[in-house]
Amino acid sequence: MSATTSPAAPVTPDAVTFSLTEEQRLLRSTVRELLTARAGSERVREVMLEHGGFDEPLWSELAQLGLTGLLVPERYGGVGSTFVEASIVLEELGRRLAPVAYLSSAVLGTVAVVRGGSDDQQARILPDVATGAARLALAHLDTAGRLDAPPGIRAARDGDDWVLDGEAGYVIDGQHATHLVVAADTGTGIELFVVAADADGLAREPVEVLDLTRPMATVTAAGMRIGDDARLSAGEPVAALHAALTAATVAIACEQVGGIQHTLEAATAYARERVQFGRAIGSFQAVKHQLADMLVATESARSTAEHAARVLARGDYDELAIAAPLAKSYCSQVYTQAAGDAIQIYGGIGFTWEHDAHLYFKRAKSTRLLLGDPRHQRALVGDALGL
């Protein structure tokens, strides 16, 4: 399937429901089949330990299916799907902890350029993003990762050019990006710039992270001079940045649902097979209750994430201000609890490096903090409700 052929037909806002269409079910099965074959546990471990947490062959296969350009408009070589289709892909990636730059490039970077770039800039940037030839990463934090602070990189006018200085921290997939969308503090506001990751005056250093399947980097600009054409010039940059971060918040929740579902399925399978005192441990009441609680929480998490994805797809931004942080908060809590409970069910083996439980536990812990922990997200819900 080419990058310009839709694996799932776009859904009009009025048609968005909680039921998947036949095309969306096909999309799910296609992605799941690919990841089952290409992103097994052994491959994920190999990539995170030997390839810096980025599986380039898998990224190429996702691109060949058109999945890297799902949110890229058709006129720029993408699929032009809604976030419903993207949420399906994200959930399947989360089930496998697939080490690819989907969140950073296909969501964060793409939404920032679509919302902030002019027609000419989108035509210049997005076609390569859609084919996977270019990978975007968003640099918007300071090195402390504070959500309420100005960006760590500053921008100053110098004639017709801009000069960038400073450091941005915790840039998701920053080491593997070909281009960076940089949020820079001008002193009077924020501007967004798209720059080549290997440009003069720009340096990237990997950050030590808990979750080795999702690498991060510190990006440093030292007297980096760029032309004004690098500045995303359509619309309001703060609104474009907010749109990208909101989409990523929903994306993380959808990804978490995939991890939660896998955790539940794997723990249930183990409880059926593991025999203790002459009986499968799944027959013990305490284990039954634990798994039943996990199932109820999993379905609730799925509902909040799917609701947020559909609200985003139909552009209901008032509702999205509530749905997005609510989904991220709840899914973060459920994932952390489920990953910890699964380790208890596995017993001693669940604490070992050889078992995959720690990979999901680390993903749960890291995504809980990414773009704001549950407490921060609940505060956003309160603000949206005027509480």
Architecture overview:
With 387 residues, this protein is an alpha+beta fold. The chain has three domains: 13-134, Butyryl-Coa Dehydrogenase, subunit A, domain 1; 138-230, Butyryl-CoA Dehydrogenase, subunit A, domain 2 (Beta Barrel); 237-385, Butyryl-CoA Dehydrogenase, subunit A, domain 3, CATH 1.20.140.10. It is built from eleven helices and nine strands. It has helices at residues 22-38, 41-50, 56-64, 83-96, 102-116, 119-131, 237-273, 285-314, 317-346, 357-369, 374-385; strands at residues 136-139, 153-158, 161-172, 179-185, 190-196, 202-207, 216-227, 275-276, 279-280. The strands form two sheets. Strands 1, 2, 3, 4, 5, 6 and 7 form a seven-stranded mixed sheet that branches. A two-stranded antiparallel sheet has the order 8-9. Strand 8 (275-276) and strand 9 form a beta hairpin. Helix 5 runs antiparallel to helix 7 and helix 7 (237-273) runs antiparallel to helix 10 (357-369). It is globular. The termini are far apart.
What labels would you give this structure?
3 domains; Butyryl-CoA Dehydrogenase, subunit A, domain 3; alpha+beta; 387 residues; Butyryl-CoA Dehydrogenase, subunit A, domain 2; 11 helices; 15% strand; seven-stranded mixed sheet; Butyryl-Coa Dehydrogenase, subunit A, domain 1
The CATH homology group name of the largest domain: Butyryl-CoA Dehydrogenase, subunit A, domain 3
CATH topology of the largest domain: Butyryl-CoA Dehydrogenase, subunit A, domain 3
Order of helices and strands: HHHHHHEEEEEEEHEEHHHH
User: In which range does the helix fraction lie?
Assistant: 40-55%
CATH architecture of the largest domain: Up-down Bundle
Oligomer: single chain
